[in-house]
Amino acid sequence: MNSKQLQYFLVAAKRGSIAGAARELDIAQPAISHQLASLEREVGAELFIRNFKGVSLTLSGELFAAHAKRIMTNINAAKMDLQQVIASAAGKVRLGILPSMGNVLSLSLIAELNRQHPHLELEISTAPSYSVKEWLKNDQIDIALTFEQEVDNNFMSAYPLIEEFLYLVVGVNENSADYQKLQHRDSISFWELSQYELLTRGSKDSLRHLIEKYEKETGVALKQNKAYSGQLMTGLRQVIQGQGLMILPSSATFHLESNNVLKSLKIIEPEMKRLVLLATNNTKPMLPGIMQLIEVIKQVTAAQQHLYNWRGELPENSLFDISVKRS
Questions:
Q1: Is residue 319 in a domain?
Q2: CA 50 to CA 57: how far, in whole Å?
C-alpha cells in the first residue's frame, strides 16, 4: 500500500467513476484500475461496487475511506513540515504585515536582520489584517503582525507587541477649513470627531470594527461618509489634498508629519488605542529562523517607539509570551 494508491482510491470515491478520477488526476484509466485492484488484493476486501454507471463504496470501502483520509492528511502535514524545515535551513522566513506597520518597521527590520543574522532571507508580504490572518492559517507566512480582534486561538499563538495610540489625521492645507480649525491643537476628544467627515473604510477593515466599538461604548456616531479606495497610500493622498480626514496610528503617518504635510491629533476622552500582536501558527514547528526574526521584530519595534515614530505603550514583559488573554 502506498500514498499513490490511497490518492487514486479517494479521488475515484469522490468522483464516483474511474474515468472521472482519470480525468482529474490526468492519468490513464487502466493505470488507476490496476492500482485499485492491487489495493483491494492487499487489504483483502472489495472496496468498490462497479457497474456501468461508475463505482460506489462498499461498507468495507466506507470504513477504509475514513482511514485513508486521515493517512493522507498526515502525509500532507508531514510534507509541509519538512518544507518548513528545508526553508529554515536555507535561511528563509516569511512575514505578513499591514501597510501601516510596514511603513514604520520594514526598512529598519531588514537592516537589523542583515546585521544580526545575515544568513536569513526575509520575505515580507503586505495586506489587510484579514488577509494576513488567512496567510498564517494556510502556511503562506511564518509570522503575522496583526491586531487583537483578528486572533483565532484555534491556530494562533500571539505576543503583545505594542498598544498603539490612534490619531485624527488632517492634511496641512491652508485652504482647508478642517486644517484651519485644527492646526493649533495636539489632541481631540472622541465626541468631537463627529464634527468631521472621515474616509469610509470597508466592512472587513479591522480599524472600522474598532471605531464601531468606540462608537457603541461612547454613544457617539461618526461621519464615515467619504469615499476611500482601501489603499493606505491613496487614502493619505486624499487627506493631504483635503478630501477628508482619517483615523490612523502614527506608524502610518510619522514620515509625512516630519515633512509637514500631515498633522496628527491624539484621540482622547476616551483615549483611542489598539493592541498590535505578533502571531505564529501553533500547529507548525517554531523553527530557529522564526525565533530569530521574532526577537529582531521586538527590538526594532522598541527602537521605533523610542524614536516616537510608533507611538504607544510596549508590553511590560520582554519574554516571548504566547498566551494572550482576551476579554
A1: no
A2: 9
Q: What is the CATH number of the domain that holds 178?
A: 3.40.190.290
pLDDT at residue 86 tops 80:
no
Beta strand pairing call for 312-313 and 156-171: antiparallel
CB 214 within 8 A of CB 192: no
* Alpha-helix runs per DSSP H in the chain: 3-15, 18-25, 29-43, 59-89, 99-116, 129-137, 177-182, 206-218, 232-240, 254-258, 288-306
> Which are the contacts of 33, defined by CB distance < 8 A and separation ≥ 6?
18
Would you give the DSSP letter of residue 66? H
Residue-wise pLDDT tens digits, 195-235:
999 988 877 888 888 999 999 999 999 988 788 877 888 89
Question: In this structure, is residue 324 part of a structural domain?
Answer: no
Give me the CATH number covering residue 27.
1.10.10.10
Say what the pTM is: 0.69
| 23 φ/ψ angles, rounded to the nearest 5 degrees | -65, -45
- Considering the domain architecture, whether residues 267 and 180 belong to the same structural domain is answered as yes
DSSP letter for each residue of 95-159: EEE-HHHHHHHHHHHHHHHHHH-TTPEEEEEE--HHHHHHHHHTTS-SEEEEEGGG--TTTEEEE
Distance between CA atoms of 275 and 295, rounded to whole angstroms?
18
Residue 48 lies in a domain: yes
**What CATH number should be reported for the domain holding residue 148?**
3.40.190.10
Number of domains composing the chain: 3
Q: Are residues 170 and 259 in the same domain?
A: yes
Q: List, for residues 26-37, the tens digit of each pLDDT value.
A: 888 899 899 899
Domain of 133 in residue numbering reads as: 88-163+274-313
278 and 147 assigned to the same domain: yes
Whether the CB-CB separation of 42 and 32 falls below 8 Å is answered with no
2 in helix, strand or coil?
coil
Angle, in degrees to the nearest 10, between helices 59-89 and 288-306: 60
- Domain-ending residue, one of 87, 105, 140: 87
304: nearest Cα among 190, 169, 172, 145: 145
